Amino acid sequence: MLNSNSEIVTKLLETGVQPEPPVLCITPTDLSVLYKIANDYPEGVTVFFAPGEYLISQTILLPSNTSMIGAGRARTKLILARASHCHLFTNADHVRGNRSILLRGFSVDGNGDTQERQPHHKALTFCCAIYIKNAHDVMVEEANFIDIRQTAVHFNGSDRITVRDCNMHKLGWSGVSTSNASNMYIDIIVSDAGRDKMHSAVHLDGGIGVRCRAHVKDTTGNGIMLDSAYGALRNVVVEGSAKNCKRGVSLSGSAEKALEFVLISGKFSENNETGVMISNASNVILTNCEITNNAQYGVLFQGRAGGRNCIVHMSTISDNGEDIKELHASHGNWVFTNDASLDREISANERALQSHGVKR
Description:
Radius of gyration: 23 Å
Largest sheet: 8 strands, parallel, barrel
Number of helices: 5
CATH class: Mainly Beta
Helix content: under 10%
CATH superfamily: Single-stranded right-handed beta-helix, Pectin lyase-like
Structural class: mainly beta
Number of strands: 24
CATH architecture: 3 Solenoid
Mean pLDDT: 92
Strand order of the largest sheet: 12-13-15-17-19-18-16-14
Distance between the termini: 71 Å
Order of helices and strands: HEHHEEEEEEEEEEEEEEEEEEEEEEEHH
Number of domains: 1
């Protein structure tokens, strides 16, 4: 068995065959190699990080067909130098796009309290650990992120994405956020997010086909937020938990772009306002949820367009300020519990009957 990245490289070299893409094994003294990867290896490269601490002061650009593989999150530590004011990683070509990027097996310390937006910087995002724009087939796995000025991992206009087995803590904004990202799988743990005023631990805006498994706690904004301000968002599965957030799960659709076809399951309890809020969204199913001890509402349907045609199924909703509430234009929602007699008394069900012209 090979016990280190250097052993892997040694074995490759012993074969006499040049791997494709090329393989590098670097140490903390080889930072200049990292900064030049996009120029020196435009067709891609596999980089193995030896154990150690890497003090990085400028953004590493990743061309297509590139892998960055650490010796393990406890052994390879990437530190964004104080007052660097930049992303740690981003893909090399935001215009034409990139594909096949892998980041695995390291921890990131972002020195977030020392990073600030510079006067010349116009983009909304300026200091993420990983910022990916217009890329396909991207995987981030087996990594820890701590003290990130903005978001640990952000995707813009990208698809075929995996972010799994990642722990994210002490974040100015979010653990994972997106602007129109599709065909995406997320499996993360997030705590102490939204330190910069108020942000959600997970914020997904626009896309189609997302499975999000997230366990969140101690966040100023929502634990998991879905919205359609940037683009329509459809076909989403949310699983996990959220505690001590503003809301456990928040769906906030826009007037112009649909937010629909969402399945939610998990434990969303002890939040400062609401367990699950569905605003201006439709065709949402809550099943096998535990929604308890939230200060204001367990499940809230609201919005100018309302929460519409949603189903709450086989879920425990109790001990909230108010367990289920419909406001504004919300209609057509149904709550199925284990108690058929109770179902008949739920006001949301009564209103759903009326919206379909059924008299009782």
